[in-house]
Design goal:
238 residues, alpha/beta, Rossmann fold, 6-stranded mixed beta sheet, 10 strands, 37% helix, binds adenosine-5'-triphosphate
């Protein structure tokens, strides 16, 4: 098992955001996470990356307890995420943005980092924009850069937070192709996404959260067909 979350709890005051969530991801798997706004999906990524400390429960990577490991150490261990709202280093070029990930997020030597970042630029379609400033990009390219920066850290476990939102259908399809290629390359992925058809093109398994609880999990299309999921998530009782 690559990642195992056991009975995680997190509350902000009286607001319970993560309520006894357990889940496991095997090496090479692609898992989708869906749920209504405020269900606790992004908080789950915070817990996995170390930005958010759980009130109770444990997180294991490769069987090792990393619950108390700081975020930077988890990145070095191979866990990296993208954020829902891209925040590139606006005054650095696209290539430099990636170098930061490779050199500081993974401590690659500069020459290795440059080679790897060139590969990531190619994979994410950003090669023609390598010398553009991060702050000058369109939404699609900012989203690509957000994904590319995470990838630059050479993660074993890549966490994607709503990367398809706000894109046109053609842009969304292009992004799906990129994520599928990353997955085929052997990277384990957990993807939070509201654009369900994009998610289903890549993930084999789905976890559904509602009010901080896991309410369903299993083979992706089977989960989407569950009456409870359709009612809670799609607002359409069957
Ligand atoms: N640092 C914080 N302090 C207080 N409340 C928080 C904090 N972080 C998240 N919350 C609250 O926790 C709840 C879950 O937030 P979270 O962002 O995890 O949900 P989500 O499922 O990712 O939602 P969305 O689909 O809208 O991104 C929300 O009600 C949010 O306002």
């Amino acid at each position: 098992m690559l990642l195992a979350l056991q009975d995680l709890h997190k509350a902000y005051g009286s607001l319970v955001v993560t309520d006894g969530v357990s889940l496991s991801v095997t090496q090479g798997e692609a898992l989708g996470v869906i749920g209504p706004n405020g269900a606790g999906k992004t908080t789950l990524f915070g817990l996995i990356t170390g930005a958010v400390r759980p009130d109770a429960g444990s997180i294991r990577l490769d069987g090792q307890d990393i619950t108390a490991l700081p975020a930077a150490q988890r990145c070095l261990a191979g866990i990296c995420r993208s954020h829902q709202i891209p925040h590139p280093f606006e005054k650095l070029t696209v290539f430099e943005n990636l170098l930061v990930g490779a050199c500081f997020g993974r401590r690659m030597r500069e020459a290795d980092a440059a080679d790897w970042c060139a590969e990531v630029l190619e994979l994410t379609g950003l090669l023609p924009k390598a010398n553009r400033l991060g702050g000058s990009l369109t939404l699609l390219d900012r989203k690509r850069l957000e994904l590319a920066r995470a990838l630059a850290t050479r993660p074993r476990l890549l966490l994607l937070d709503e990367i398809a939102g706000g894109l046109t259908e053609a842009e969304c399809q292009a992004l799906v192709g990129t994520v599928a290629a990353i997955h085929r390359g052997g990277t384990t992925i957990i993807w939070i996404e509201h654009i369900v058809h994009a998610l289903l093109a890549v993930v084999g398994r789905l976890t559904v959260l509602n009010f901080g609880r896991k309410i369903a999990e299993g083979e992706a299309r089977g989960v989407m067909d569950l009456a409870e999921v359709r009612e809670i998530y799609l607002g359409s009782p069957v």
